[in-house]
Amino acid sequence: MTKDVLITISGLQIADDTSAQPVEVITSGEYYCRNGKHYILYDEVMEGFQGVTKNRIKLYENCLDITKKGISNVHMIFEKNKKNVAYYETPYGSILLGISASNFEMKETEDSIRLKVDYALDINEEPLADCKIRIRIQSKDAGFSLRQ
Known about the structure:
It comes from Candidatus Eubacterium avistercoris. By secondary structure, the protein is mainly β.
């Protein structure tokens, strides 16, 4: 995989009323691998706010580790069959997140990494939604398609 990558992150939250809220981000970033762990770095801009949020995704065996620093701050860990909690600091206040991952699939090729994580999300210890996150990291020079 090259240092310069394209990152596609798509997510879906399904609340009790079965309304789905899809979200998708496509951006460029940097990739490196160290000690068997994959690192992806990219910047995020929040509409209506000045500045950026620096994002770091770390991938390793059955674990997705996301750190955001800037306008929003959080360190979320998605581990299969384990519940993790994190405080999500936003411009509007702090939220306690509970993340319980039930499925974790990662596929690597020479030019890409594809990740699927299914998890239950709770806010302030109250169940909120069943969620899915899909992440694709692809070398910029490998060509880009919108297929997940």
